[in-house]
């Protein structure tokens, strides 16, 4: 799989300046994100039958910085996003959410039962993280009572340990949440679920 970086310019004048090749058999890039300072380009990618990986690249040269193991689930979108302060990188997949330091070192991993995480968004304060999921459990069973498709997480970091802690959650009518986004002032979180928008102040 190949990712090509273009210099910012009007569409007719844009020119590629870096060609990134993701090595391996049957891999494709599922999601990507730039760090807030524009210096690092992160991509999630996977093999046809797994596993998935996260690779950090120098956004100026396209040089590979580091590759780490990503979510274990296969055939998923693996959303990825940097925190506004550039300190954290969040990646998600089938039944799990991973938090990395910006250098690619894993900080924490949490499980989300019966949920394919399809969307992530950091709060402007870089301490809160929202996830939106597609609930994958059997609707005839009560296991979905344990799962909400919009979850708010807080990052609790000390010198010794970093944890993702579930602080709030919301179950909306549709089972599949495909986008989440915070307002610029951080007072409102919007979740887009199939063809319905839900806004809630958290």
Task: Write a structural description.
With 202 residues, this protein is mainly beta. 0% of the residues lie in helices and 56% in strands. It has no helices and 15 strands. It has strands at 2-6, 16-21, 28-34, 40-46, 52-58, 64-69, 80-82, 88-101, 106-122, 128-135, 150-157, 162-170, 177-182, 189-193, 196-200. It has a 6-stranded antiparallel sheet with strand order 7-8-9-10-11-12, with no helix packed on it. Strands 3-4-5-6 form a 4-stranded antiparallel sheet, with no helix packed on it. Strands 13-14-15 form a 3-stranded antiparallel sheet, with no helix packed on it. β3 and β4 (40-46) form a beta hairpin. The protein is globular and about 45 Å long. The model has no long low-confidence stretch (mean pLDDT 80).
Task: Characterize this entry briefly.
The protein has strands at 2-6, 16-21, 28-34, 40-46, 52-58, 64-69, 80-82, 88-101, 106-122, 128-135, 150-157, 162-170, 177-182, 189-193, 196-200. It has 202 residues and is mainly β.
Give the strand tally: 15
Mean pLDDT: 80
Order of SSEs, N→C?
Answer: EEEEEEEEEEEEEEE
Helix percentage = under 10%
Give the class from helix and strand content and strand pairing: mainly beta
How would you write the strand order of the largest sheet? Answer: 7-8-9-10-11-12
Poorly predicted residue ranges: none
From the alpha-carbon coordinates, what is the Rg to the nearest angstrom? 17 Å
Number of helices: 0
The N- and C-terminal alpha carbons lie at a distance of 39 Å
Report the portion of residues in β strands.
over 45%
Taking the sheet with the most strands, its summary is:
6 strands, antiparallel
Shape: globular
């Amino acid at each position: 799989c190949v990712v090509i970086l273009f210099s910012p310019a009007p569409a007719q004048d844009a020119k590629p300046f870096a060609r990134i090749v993701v090595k391996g058999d049957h891999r494709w890039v599922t999601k990507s994100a730039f760090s807030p300072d524009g210096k690092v380009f992160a991509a999630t990618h996977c093999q046809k039958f797994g596993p998935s990986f996260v690779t950090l690249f120098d956004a100026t040269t396209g040089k590979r910085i580091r590759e780490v193991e990503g979510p274990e689930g296969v055939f998923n979108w693996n959303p990825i996003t940097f925190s506004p302060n550039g300190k954290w990188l969040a990646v998600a997949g089938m039944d799990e959410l991973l938090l990395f330091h910006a250098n690619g070192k894993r900080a924490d991993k949490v499980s989300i039962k019966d949920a394919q995480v399809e969307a992530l968004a950091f709060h402007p304060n870089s301490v809160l993280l929202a996830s939106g999921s597609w609930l994958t459990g059997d609707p005839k069973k009560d296991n979905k009572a344990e799962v909400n498709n919009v979850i708010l997480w807080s990052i609790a970091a000390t010198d010794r340990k970093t944890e993702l802690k579930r602080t709030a959650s919301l179950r909306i009518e549709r089972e599949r949440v495909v986008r989440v986004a915070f307002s610029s002032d951080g007072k409102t979180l919007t979740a887009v679920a199939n063809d319905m928008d839900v806004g809630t102040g958290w």
